[in-house]
Each structure stands twice: as structure tokens, then as C-alpha cells.
Amino acid sequence: MTMQKTSFSKLMEIFLVSIRLGFTSFGGPVAHLGYFHEEYVRRRKWLDEKSYADLVALCQFLPGPASSQVGIGIGVMRGGVLGGILAFLGFTMPSVIALIVFALVLQEVDIADAGWIHGLKIVAVAVVAHAILGMAGKLAPDLKRKAIVLAVLGIVLLWQTAFTQIGVIVIAGLIGFLLYKDHKIDSSPSFAFPLSRTFGGICLVLFFALLVLLPILREATSLNWIALFDSFYRSGALVFGGGHVVLPLLEREFVPAGWLTAEQFLAGYGAAQAVPGPLFTFAAYIGALINGWQGGLLATFAIFLPAFLLILGALPFWDTLRRNPNIQGALMGVNAAVVGILIAAFYTPIWTSTIVDAIDFVFAAILFSMLMYWKLSPWVVVIVGALGGALLRLFT
What we know:
mainly alpha; 2 domains
């Protein structure tokens, strides 16, 4: 009885923490990683810096929404498959509900220039800067890894393609293997994943089976819901580089086919920028336009299912791989590359689309200080950011 009570308490804690993040994590996937780092690593210490960085590196390798996969992975580490599901639901459902509401009742409201939205973007600047400082000091402490960070930063900014990130991670892993294969480092704490390798293998097989079978089933039937499921599943399964990359895929799937107009698509994109949580929940808006709230939920399930299958399939093998002495050096290079990718994303699109004048920079510095020096919770900074952005718009 005590064990069940403890387990239930742990699952409720996972859900409550993740749903708070779901309500307050503005700013896109890079900012989400910053919020996760602050909550799960700094405050709650559910995992250490290196284990968090290793999990981020794994999710960068996998297609799909990296920040959502990191959240699912942490939930699985903490509470098994059910913990992963609860972590996903908590982080995702607030934005899903908000975007379904946007699709149904707020399509004619212009919120693109609202001051509070700009304030939330400035919050993202502070959060990501805080995360970068914390991760860089631990993951790139020597000159060799700083050089990897710098090289990755330059490549990602100057050569922007859908496959740049995965390419630099692979190359950084090879460089790290060559530079650090004989380097002795402390082993990270082991996580007892409540997932068997058989279960992981089944998830990976199911991922590829659906990718192949859904288009065949779509052609063999005339059911609209299968066509919708296939389009969203393929979009979620074949995208590297985070939420923004999935938007052109969704546009090509639904606008030319007449499911929705270009104007409706762009209105939904504006709404997606105004809500917290993963940008993949933009699918809920499209689904709701096509078939009401039921379509929104179906679209959400379909676009996130590949990410779920991939992270559950990879986690049972990941802890063993990252402890292999032959792979430790590669992971050191990969972790440095992740820092470079974070810095590149911090510059664009976060900084370039947000800090447009001196008052924005001053406000970002204040929010950063609230996180870094005053140690305030991220949700407090989010509220201050939204209110401050609205006030700034009144006086500028």
C-alpha cells in the first residue's frame, strides 16, 4: 500500500510539474529546453547536468519535437511509461486546448502585434540565456570543446538547412571520439528505465510500420480521418530541427489540398506564437478547423505519436550506450555541439526577432537578473514579462 501511494504521489508530481511548464513555457523549443533545465535539473535535481545534456543530444538525433521528447524522456525516467504519458499530457494539453479555442472562436481577432506577446518573447531571451550559461560552463569547460561550440555555432548560423543540426551533431560526435576516447570522466548516475529492450524494439518497429502502412491504407480507403492521420503522422515523423520546420510540411499537406486556406493557416501560425508549449500543437488548430474539437485531438495524437514511439524505443538502449567507454568521448563532442546549437538558436530567431531596440534589451536584462540572481521561479518571470510587454507597448 505504501509503495502504491508513493508511486501515485510521484506520478501526480510529474503531472503537476509538467502542466505548470505547459502553462508557462513560452518561446519555442530552445526556450522549452531552458525551462526544463531550470525546473528538472536546477530546482528538482531529477537528473544531473550531463544526463540532461545526453538526453537532449539523443532527442536532437531523433526526428520530431525535441523539447517534447526531452519532457517525455524525463517523465519516463521518473515514473515509467505512465510517467512519460503524464509528462507529455501536462506539457502539451494547455496549448492544444488554447489552439482549438483559437480555431473555433478567435480566428478574426488580430493578436499578432499585442504587447504581451512581445513581452513573452523577451522572457524567452532571458530563459535561453540563463540555460546557455549553465550548460556551457559544464559541457564545454576546455578549449577543445569550446572550439567545437564555436564551429557548430558558425555552421548552424551560416548554413541553415533541415539537416544541418543532425549533421553537425554527427560530426561533433566523431571529433569528440577522436579527441576524448582515452579520456577518463566520472560516470553519471544510472537510471533504471522501467522499459525492456523488447518493448523498445516493438516501439521502433511500430514507428516504421505506421510510416509505411498509413499511406497504403489511405489510398485503399476514402476515409477522411485516415487521410488526416496519415498527413499529421508523416509530418511528425519526418521533421528534423524542431517545431518551426514542421510548419512548411503542414502547409504543403493541407493548403494545396483545400483543407484550409492560406489565410487560415497564417492566422493559426500567429495564434501558435501566442501560446505556451510545443509548436507541434499547431496541428490541433488545423484539425479543429477541419473537423471541430475531435479533429484537433486526432491531429494532436497523430503528429506526436512518432515522437512518442521513437523516444520510448530509444531510451532502453540509451543508458547502456552512453556508458560505453568507446562512446563517452563521442558524447562529450555531441554535448558541446548542443551548446553551439543553443547559442545559434538564441541569436536567431530568438534574439533577432525580439530585441529590436534599447528598451527591449533593458527589459531582457531585468528578466535575466530575476532568474539568475534573484532566483525567482520561471512562471513569475513569465507573468512579469507579459505585463511588462503590455506596458512597454503603451509607451513606445
